[in-house]
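Re: the 214-residue chain
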Amino acid sequence: MQHSQPETHLGTHLTCEHLSTDKPLEELAARHTGAHPLHRLPRGTATTLLNDGRQVMTSIAEAAQTAAVFIEHSAAASEFGPYRGADLARTAVRLASTLSLTLDHITISPDWLRRRTTPGEPLLATATCPATGTRYEFLARQPLHEDDPFELLGPCPTCKARVPLADIRHLADLGTFLATGPTPLDGGPIPPTYPTTFADDEAHTPTCPYGPTP
């Protein structure tokens, strides 16, 4: 039996039904010719949401192809040029994979505060939780170094500026931070739970004792 809900603000017709194929996108497209994808990437990249919150995903091969096409198209269309555009797109793909999100929940922008004049300037990456709308902001300080962790940004316990509070290599790192929060500083030495980039980060206020040394 099939149940349906009205169209959401995303313009996606939500359905709850049993799929009997290993190609769910093809089957759903055949059943619901008027449904709209959440993001407008080429054929085979759409994700259809079900009303119980699950996602009907493509196969691993199709998901990998989606990522490759996304990077190629983003690089070609970027206002920052193809090389910088590819940096932004690769960072989006990496963060989406790290947090088990689809690309339509990731936004990437240059970090004008921490910029350098060398290739691979820092990028800001924002992930929006599809369930709660909560936004998490990350810094890719060296986007060309894909083995480096993302740096989760949040208010400095002392000056309240948005600075790196945790290194995030995988989803469990974020879970640990959300469960414990930043370690209190109390004006003393920086605990080892903070990323090494916390000290002297450019975002600290001028009077913060943990900011850059004049």
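The CA atoms of residues 131 and 201 lie 32 Å apart.
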